[in-house]
Amino acid sequence: MVNHSHVKNLVKILIGAAWIDGRIQPEERQYLREIAQAKGLANDPEIKPWLYELVPVKPNRCYEWVKDYLGDRPSLEDYENLIEAISGLIYSDGEVAIEEARLLTTLEELSKSHESIQPGHVTLLRQIQKLYRRWVDVQN
């Protein structure tokens, strides 16, 4: 059974990731609203101000949410869910901002700082990071 607060934290991270480059793209906005709707959080009083861009989310807040989401002993599944969700958002607008790539780099660093992470997953994180770096290089 999926923990409701865990799902809510994931949606908050996605909103933060969308804001991380300073603005929400139209494609990101649509993606976020679809996710919030699907998770039953579109009208959540905590989520709504960020979802409808009434309140911007600063990058450091997004990173705090990531740490809260992962907790002290993140599982392989926690990292996979987070990376999969963030990747979906980041690619929704067809471009990867430097700040978005930095978020994934930070996720990789976080994963390295936790001994509970399995080696195969570190490889996955590295592959994703390389993908983003290539994407960023192509954009510049």
TrEMBL record:
This is Tellurite resistance protein TerB. It comes from the Bacteria. CDD domains: terB_like. It comes from Nostoc azollae (strain 0708).
